[in-house]
Amino acid sequence: MPDVATTKMPALCEKCKPEVRGSIFVSDGWQNVRREHITGSILTLFGKSLRFGVHEDGDRHDGIAIAVQLEPILVQAIAEDWNVGCMITDDAGQCRRARQILSLRWPKISFIFCFAHGINNLVKDVLKTSFSQITREASAAVNVVNNSVKWLRRARNLMNKMYGYELSLCSLCVTRWNSMQACFASLSRVKSALEMLARQCHEDDDFPRDLAVFLKDYFWSDLKRVERVIAPLSLASYRLQRDENTLGDVIKSYADIFAGFKQAPQYSKQLIECVEKRWKKCEQPLFMLFIQHTLQKIGSCSQH
């Protein structure tokens, strides 16, 4: 598959890019409609994302192979007068190893992982904790409704009857941003209609067993509690998906998540362990937090 031609840069970017220090180079993997695995690369400048190229993936995915694939793209960017100061990839598979290899060959470039992707991985960790039961039940119920013409139509009829409009139920997907919060919220906002659906049809021979949770009080109370606990995760995910972020945003995001999880005594121990596991990988934010904390202590001591 031939490489896609580089997008024509705006005149301002073309004029300024040699003088700009620290253009950000981002690379990630996708799958096209032909189910081919490809590596897409973009450059960010002045808060704008510019497509740099698309390249076909090889059949090896070890750290050395990924580094060998990424380096020519980086060399091409530098050859086109881009002053690359940072290269970002996700943290899946051997990407961390590839960044370590490239950092030795390019010591003046910072190689870091995508913090938004790290938040998404944190969501996956959370799904495996005490939330696993409510997550499994909510996901199964939504899938049954969405995948059945009969039950979806009945649910929508009740929504129209009770609210005057229809609302969709969002499926939970561990690789989709904020899908857990969206799934739980979509169930909660049509609670009465779903309860009525279960009460009217639970004696039918073909009533799906997964929809019986709509009649359980614990299901709705747990759903509300869990949605409130994971709210900081959703806010952090939305914040870190913006084009213009700083490491300060990362620090605030993890601090908000930690504070939110700490307010849930029933789940706090497991959830905080998930945060700390991911937090330990964030070397740059930890360094900034150390400096900030030290300066605050010095300022506090000088006041006394």
From TrEMBL:
InterPro entries assigned to the protein according to its UniProt record, in alphabetical order: RNaseH-like_sf, ZnF_BED_domain_contain
A GO CC term attached to the entry: nucleus
Lineage of the organism: Eukaryota, Sar, Stramenopiles, Oomycota, Peronosporomycetes
Protein name, per record: Uncharacterized protein
Organism: Phytophthora nicotianae (Potato buckeye rot agent)
SUPFAM superfamilies in the cross-refs: Ribonuclease H-like
Keyword Nucleus among record annotations: yes
Keyword Metal-binding included in the entry's annotation: yes
Main location: nucleus
